[in-house]
Amino acid sequence: MSSFSPLLQSAGRRRTTWSEVRTRLEKVANAAVTPLMPADYLDLFHPLRSGAPLRGRIVELVPETKDAATIVLKPGSDWAGHVPGQYLRIGIDVDGVRQWRAYSLTHGPRADGLISITVKAVPGGKVSNHLVHSCPVGSVVHLEQATGEFVLPETLTSDPAGTKLLFVTAGSGVTPVIGMLRNLFPVADEGVVHLDRSRGLDITVVHVAPTRPDSIFLRDLEALDASGSIRLVARYDDQHGLLDVAELATLVPDLAERTTYACGPGGLLDALDAHHAEAGLDLFTEQFRPALVAVGDGGEVSFTSGASVTADGATTLLDAGESAGVLMPSGCRMGVCFGCVVPLREGSVRDLRNGEITTAVPGETAPEGVPIQTCISAAAGPCHIGC
Amino acid sequence: MTVITKQDVNPTAHLTPEDIEQIGVELDAIRQSVIDDRGESDAKYIRRVIDTQRKLELGSRAVLLFSALPPAWLLGTAGLAVAKILENMEIGHNVMHGQWDWMRDPKIHSTTWEWDNASTAEGWKHSHNEIHHTYTNIVGKDNDLGYGIMRVDEDQRWIPMYLAQPVWNFINACFFEYGIAAYDLELGKNLSMPKEKRSEEFKRRAKNTLRKIRQQATKDYVVHPALSIPTGSFLPTLAANFTANLVRNLWSHSVIMCGHFPEGVETFEKKAIPDNETRGEWYVRQMLGSANISGSKAMHLMTGNLSHQIEHHLFPDLPSNRYAEVAPKVKALFDKYDLNYHEAPLPAQVYSAWHKVVRLSLPNGFLATTTAKNLPQQMKMLYAMTTGDKKTRRVAQLRLEQQARRIERAKAEKQATAAA
Questions:
Q1: Nearest residue on chain B to A366, alpha-carbon basis
Q2: Is the separation of the CB atoms in A353 and B25 below 8 Å?
Q3: CB 3.0-4.6 Å disulfide test: which of A164, A232, A332, B103 passes with A202?
């Protein structure tokens, strides 16, 4: 034992010396490029490298229907992988402006390390239409690591036989489920590939939509239903009326034997929550909140420092904040000097000079919020300012 | 030029309040048309400029690792000077103005950009964006009128120290990045205060500025020369970096002087500006208080589009690549309201600015009243004014101005009779 210690000790010393050398080199590199960082130069050549902020490169666009496409991305070296059912946030420049959106990972994990999202062009949707119709293949986008807890239990993959699941999805809430189903039942040209990890799995999918959509996701579900991999119960409001959660037991006779996963708008999830709690059944949910932006005139302005004040549509956020005792940076107070810029974290504001509305939707817009000039902006509905 | 309110003919006298408001409406419309149109091609533009500038700097510094070889020294120094000029003028100054904030890119944003200059972004944004752009050319409020070390307007009272202002101006030009840093800190005012009375804000900013200066100097005069030691290029690289900084300082100083100093650019009296100056009134002040430089696209790029000073002062937050496009519309507005659109080529504007610096280093009316014949007496009077007390100066000044006016009137009468 004691004869090994000097060896271990000297190895430890060598490792320490190397990390010291690295620190020194980093210091020199920083001093050589200040006020920039070495990363700012490395980004010009190798934006997907390890250690860089997470980015991805769009490598392929696979059109699926006339308004949907699958975007295949090569993620940066620090991509930590994902579990089917999770989603990522992608930051992409549309018309020069960085927009952030969340999309479920609809395939994989893939052996080649690529990731993909399937995007449906929403009418009037800035990012979805850009991705589907003018996808900039080859360009670099910004990513955040996969996140979300709407995933199948780990125990499932080891012993799927006999497990009974119910997926209740509404609208775009189907996308994480698609991600899970594509992982369990990959579809090749010859048809559904049967894998060990899905053998014996008994899955029912209740899909709710206002009307029978011509959507890529529904086709996938119908194909899986046709092949007997899942049992699909499609419910359309215009054909069958609004879904009443109480009917669930009729639609799914063996409901009590199934673990339910539900993804959709809050109303449906709340109803399911109440229903399952009463019946003593397991329920896992993920809420897909539609970006409801009710733009108004004036509103409640809240600040991260804790203060809150109600302002009308003609009062600047700067004046409103100062009247509430908030410490707000300011300058020319006329929109020229940009000395009053702080982040809008949630809500909408109106530029008093030209009426332009700026909106921040947490989870959609940038993580830090959207920077705005408080001296020429007024509240356009309730909003939250980061100062 | 003296302030417009003290001139014989106020250049805005023919404008009614309705005219001024209409000017505001039309300029707002021009601004909105650019905002409506702003998009992908503009974003591509600034990203391309940044990409090019960074690669140019990287390449130049790499070449300078071999600066002991004269061709490498020349190439590297030229490249580095251009890179520093681009970074300060087309990129840094404009990004800090918020011109690219609309892209919502945290790396190209007025709140995060730090520029390759001895002065801090914070200091620059305060003295330039906030003070200079709000109080443009108001004598006594816009300290860019002389930077506190020169007089550039007849309404700034003459004191003997200004006799040396051509020299101060040149020294400031050579070390402009430090001049800006000192100016942003209001060093003159703050250092003349006893230490205990200086504000915490000043002390914090001074500390940050000293740190910035130290980092910049270490980069250019220690780290990169040291990296060149293997090729025996320590001193040549140091000289190259010093030269590149010098070239950037001289160039940016010249361009900035051209913005407001050429003869004929208007200045304004503090008490003539209402407390709640309307948007139209602010616009008119920007229109008359700025001067453009005409020239090639390359010149526009190297001046950071400050060659479009008038357009920049009207629309400081519009992307700089759009100034050339709106310039004809702006000029048409000047013509419509019979206002002077001050524009001339670079050598003319630089000469004009220096002319003013030299002319106003002397008391008002001195040059106008001095001839070869009376030179000895004029010099004697100048000596008396320089060494005398305030009263002597005031009396002499009044007499000079009286004589200058008499000469002006005589000249005007002569012209009138010659025309008749």
A1: B104
A2: no
A3: A164
